[in-house]
Amino acid sequence: MASSFIPFLTTAFAIIIITLLNSSTKTRGICYNSIISFGDSLADTGNLLRLSPSNNPLHFFLPPYGESFFHQPTGRCSNGRLVIDFIAESYGLPLIPPYLAGKNVSGRDFRGVNFAVAGATALDISFFKEKGIHNPVTNVSLGTQLRWFKDILPSLCSNSSDCREFLQSSLVVMGEIGGNDYNHAFLEGRNVEEVKSFIPAVVREISSAIEEIIKLGVVTLIVPGNLPIGCSAAYLTYFQSSDKHDYDSATGCINWLNNFSKYHNKLLQMELNRIRTLHPHATIIYADYYNAAMRLYRFPDKYGFKGGALTACCGAGGPYNYNSSVACGYPPSTSCEDPSLYVCWDGLHLTEAAYKWIARGLLQGPYSSPPMSTVCTLASKSSGLLLQD
Ligand SMILES: *[C@@H]1O[C@H](CO)[C@@H](O)[C@H](O)[C@H]1NC(C)=O
Ligand SMILES: *[C@@H]1O[C@H](CO)[C@@H](O)[C@H](O)[C@H]1NC(C)=O
Ligand SMILES: *[C@@H]1O[C@H](CO)[C@@H](O)[C@H](O)[C@H]1NC(C)=O
Ligand SMILES: *[C@@H]1O[C@H](CO)[C@@H](O)[C@H](O)[C@H]1NC(C)=O
Ligand SMILES: *[C@@H]1O[C@H](CO)[C@@H](O)[C@H](O)[C@H]1NC(C)=O
């Protein structure tokens, strides 16, 4: 009996989920009514695009960006959807609109807003100005994004107890943020000891943003760590070395750079533990982007990345198809035939296919702590249906 009953249950379950998802724009999402997102280019769904002059578009806003899913550039720094898009889909919510798109939000039909800006740093721009480090992309920091959030809050809820109730039903995704605090310094030639000295301040900035929004009433947060920068085509090109001991023989990634990412992630997790003790009613989920991505570099074939894990799909040649003076989108760069066979999209950002594996690793797999699959069981089931190959 059991053997004929189980497929029936699975089908019934699938129908329930698909019904929930189809009606998601009218009804509430699975587990949460809305998603509020902060971060940088790993999460920006169109804010930097709205901040930039349209007469001289940055390369991110030109084809082939967006080609695989949206069929046009959207402001996302990839060929398609990002981790935040897959999370929204899995929770039965619409893709989160960028704050600067100026959509008219009101409490009733609010389903989310995204404050992430490509190029944004966790620390304020003044920290880097003082050190002579230039941010070539934006002066928006996490502090700016938090101010935007506080600016729109009165349009979403009416007083502090109403706002607490409203925010209790929201999922906040805090990051990834912090990567650019290091990227700009490294790629402008600062040495690792100097850049490493920024880590405690970066982690403090992220943690004070988390505490601030918990105090406003948020009770569920996802906080991503950093990706393994030693596996990125931009870093591999910039820090190319003739000493084979610099490289991990299993992946070809640069060990000391990956150690740097691991160190940031270690301090971030220690800080999250501290905040968890202070706010035991809040659920603070660490999203382990590092290891969720690392498995793609270790076993590219297993995940379908036949184009290679380290070479960028879109670029202008060189050993990793990355040339800092000819960005993807500008001539004479070219794009690969099938981005789904590559982990790396443009040198610094990943392909939609890689982001989908990372999202799957968080939603269903072992790469979130506490596991997202236990915090919201239904969404992890729906993601099983949505995130098929
Ligand atoms: C939102 O829309 C309403 C009705 O169309 C309009 O009166 C209001 O000014 C708008 N608010 C914003 C912030 O755009
Ligand atoms: C960021 O740059 C914009 C445009 O250049 C400027 O209007 C704004 O005041 C700057 N913000 C900060 C915090 O420096
Ligand atoms: C707060 O706002 C809610 C919803 O608008 C309202 O029901 C409640 O009475 C308000 N509370 C206070 C203390 O103003
Ligand atoms: C990376 O970190 C590990 C563990 O802390 C250490 O043993 C190793 O020497 C480091 N490697 C490099 C290249 O920094
Ligand atoms: C990068 O592109 C520029 C401009 O096309 C070219 O002059 C340079 O040689 C390229 N660098 C590498 C490492 O391929």
TrEMBL record:
Residues 1-29 form the signal peptide. CDD domains: SGNH_plant_lipase_like. GO terms for molecular function: hydrolase activity. Transmembrane segments: none annotated. InterPro entries: GDSL (IPR001087), SGNH_hydro_sf (IPR036514), SGNH_plant_lipase-like (IPR035669). Keywords: Glycoprotein, Hydrolase, Signal. It comes from the Eukaryota. The keyword Glycoprotein applies. Pfam families: Lipase_GDSL. Belongs to the 'GDSL' lipolytic enzyme family. This is Uncharacterized protein. The lineage of its organism: Eukaryota, Viridiplantae, Streptophyta, Embryophyta, Tracheophyta.
